[in-house]
Amino acid sequence: MAIEIPSGLSKEERTKRVAERNEKIAKLRDDASEDKSKVSEQAKAEKEEVRTSASRKKKRITEDTKEERADNSANAKSEREKVSAELKAAVTAAREAYKAAKENLDATYEDLYQQEFDKIASEYKAVKKRKRRK
């Protein structure tokens, strides 16, 4: 879009047209400069807004993560306590069952031992009851 100045004009007319062209160029440069500064300002504002937004999101995510970790820690602690209590109860129950089984086994053994003793004792008495002849 070059503005050409026709040849064959008088010096005054040519100077006038050159001045008009220079004014138009200056106006276009000013407009371009204004547009450039507006775009630059908008970019700076958007950049700052993005930074602020990212900072807020990061802070929120960090807080959420901390809360989640704390919840997980508390849940894990309560779960460990629950498992510990269940394990202790199972060990106690096993010990009680062992004691009961041992007492039962001891009682059964004692009964068998007594029966065998009685059986042997009755046979021994039967043998001794014979009288000897003199």
Provide structural commentary.
The termini are far apart. This protein is an all-alpha fold and 134 residues long. The chain is 88% helix and 0% strand. It is rod-shaped, with a radius of gyration of 55 Å. The longest helix is centred in the middle third of the chain and has 118 residues, at 11-128. The chain is built from 1 helix and no strands.
Distance between the termini: 163 Å
Query: Count of DSSP E strands?
Result: 0
Mean of all residue-level pLDDT scores: 89
| Low-confidence regions | none
Structural class: mainly alpha
* Topology as a string of helices (H) and strands (E): H
Largest sheet: none
Cα-atom Rg, whole angstroms?
55 Å
Number of DSSP helical runs: 1
Task: Name a few traits of the molecule.
134 residues, mainly alpha, 1 helix, 88% helix, rod-shaped
Write the layout of secondary structure elements.
Blueprint: H1 11-128
Concise overview:
The chain has one helix spanning 11-128. It has 134 residues and is an all-alpha fold.
